[in-house]
Specification:
This protein has about 240 residues and is mainly alpha-helical. It contains ten helices and no strands. The protein has a domain of about 160 residues: 3'5'-cyclic nucleotide phosphodiesterase, catalytic domain (Catalytic domain of cyclic nucleotide phosphodiesterase 4b2b), CATH 1.10.1300. It is globular and about 55 Å long.
Length: about 240
């Protein structure tokens, strides 16, 4: 928060500190999860800080993003979605909101942070956030928000929120796809262990090609993503051969 130049008295900073203290105490920390645990929370928080420092966000936008990054997988149970899209994201939102209320965070900020967290859902949330970003900042078509539901649908009406949401979704995946090939492999092993099923090179490549693609807001790590894709293609070819 100091690096993002957030004042100590800011209600969201106080709420974030309370969440962080409980995570340190093992509350909602995902300590039984090989991947979605307190280390992942910290990695995403640091990635969000790095990305926001190069983005045109207000102080309010910065602190909202950092709290969303900290809480985006709060109380993750290590299980998949099942038949309920956004199940895990809603768990995080519902666990986070009492902390925000206790610190006197206004309802509109609570709603914005909730929308950002919902955007981290990879099958619907992330693609919708990216369509909204493209519309506002790259001349893309008006995104269809039919069936999206509130508060996530707010991204189609609010350019700043769309930017924040994409920053968070990119911070969420940066540690596992934007750093080194070795760390990407370790992340895959941890996620495979958590899900109880192997994740192949083809699975990883499919995620990179179809779901994630590349960074949009800050392309500093794009060469790393390209290197990872190439390594996965080569490795997959060797295994097929």
């Amino acid at each position: 928060m100091q690096a993002a130049e957030i004042a100590d008295a800011h209600p969201l900073l106080q709420a974030g500190e309370r969440i962080a203290r409980d995570i340190d105490a093992g509350i909602g920390a995902g300590d039984g999860n090989p991947y979605h645990n307190r280390q992942h929370f910290c990695e995403v928080l640091l990635a969000a800080l790095y990305l926001l420092l190069a983005a045109p966000l207000t102080q309010a936008g910065r602190v909202q993003l950092l709290v969303a990054a900290l809480a985006h997988d709060f109380h993750h149970d290590g299980k998949g979605f099942g038949d309920a899209t956004f199940r895990l994201e809603r768990v995080a939102v519902e666990a986070m909101l009492p902390y925000l209320a206790a610190s006197g965070v206004p309802q509109d900020e609570c709603t914005r942070i909730s929308a950002m967290i919902l955007a981290t859902e990879i099958s619907t949330g992330m693609p919708f956030a990216r369509r909204c970003y493209r519309h506002f900042f790259e001349g893309g078509a008006q995104p269809d928000a039919a069936g999206i539901g509130e508060p996530l649908a707010m991204l189609a009406r609010d350019a700043n929120l769309a930017r924040q949401a994409v920053l968070l979704t990119e911070a969420d995946v940066l540690p596992s796809v934007g750093l080194t090939l070795d760390y990407s492999e370790l992340s895959r092993e941890n996620l495979s262990s958590e899900w109880g099923k192997p994740l192949s090179d083809a699975d990883n490549l499919n995620f990179l090609e179809r779901v994630f693609g590349d960074f949009m807001v800050n392309r500093f790590f794009s060469p790393n993503v390209s290197a990872l894709k190439e390594a996965l293609r080569i490795q997959a070819g060797k295994r097929v051969g």
